[in-house]
Amino acid sequence: MPTARTVIIRAHGGPEVFELAEREVPSPAAGEVTIEQHAAGLNFIDVYQRSGLYPMQLPVAMGMEAAGMVTAVGAGVMHLRPGDRVAYAANPPGAYAAARTMPAAQVCPLPDGISFDDGAAMMLKGMTVVYLFRRTVPIAQGDTVLFHAAAGGVGLIACQWARSEGIRLIGTAGSDEKCRLALEHGASACINYRSGDFVAQVRDLTGGKGVDVVMDSVGATTFNGSLDCLRPLGMMILFGTASGKVPPFDINLLAAKGSLKLTRPTLFTHTADPVVCQQMARDLFGKVASGAVRIRIDQRFPLERVADAHRALEARETTGSTILTLR
Hints:
Distance between the termini: 20 Å
Strand content: 25-35%
Helix content: 25-40%
């Protein structure tokens, strides 16, 4: 049976727990596909899984998104054939690998005009943007969104997506340089949260009204302020906790602050239905193919330096997307 270089962990912890191992790549069973992978994406969910914030059954292969070429398909797989270019953001983990066999339902055909690197960098982040803007709460042209971490991988896609649909996006970021990056990608304004009170600045930018929607992947350090940025009946979407878990709070606070709405979605709930998953991917590919969204990859690491990649992400030293090169 062939083998492939694969990153695994045998214990939860810091980046030092990563191991590079040769693992068997079995032939695909019914409903499965084997992929020769060219690049894998790096995401905060990988950090949560590695650290134990999201406990995993160990040992486990790591990584949630990648792009490559199909080399074999199992019985019953109708939407893919050997030789197809593909990309995915899907369970089970195992994307940090030169090749793997996995369930085919959430593996998506990748258009010829989109590179493997872009495919690996865009799937989890880009389809997150799809569900944030199209599947969580109605957002119309002219609405205003506050987006934290606007210069990150998800954020830069969100800035461009909002601009393409006439949605006003106010971003936050941790430096003036990162704010400039968000503005270049379509944010209408960007606040350096390290140099001022983002709540006061959002209120000023909205004439005191507040925003229609907050999209927050930061968590503990921004959560309370995010609620204060919303207009009455506004929607708070917490879709990550990069700064740590949000402490328990009194739900009556939502009433006191204006009958606010709060949700904590995950991408994999939305993509669990294969039909929905494939449509979300087509929506994303359409934006990229049209030029409305450009995937920015600012960091590339070989698979052997996966620990360095995680350290950079956790230290907030990255902008745009980060990928692991597998070929």
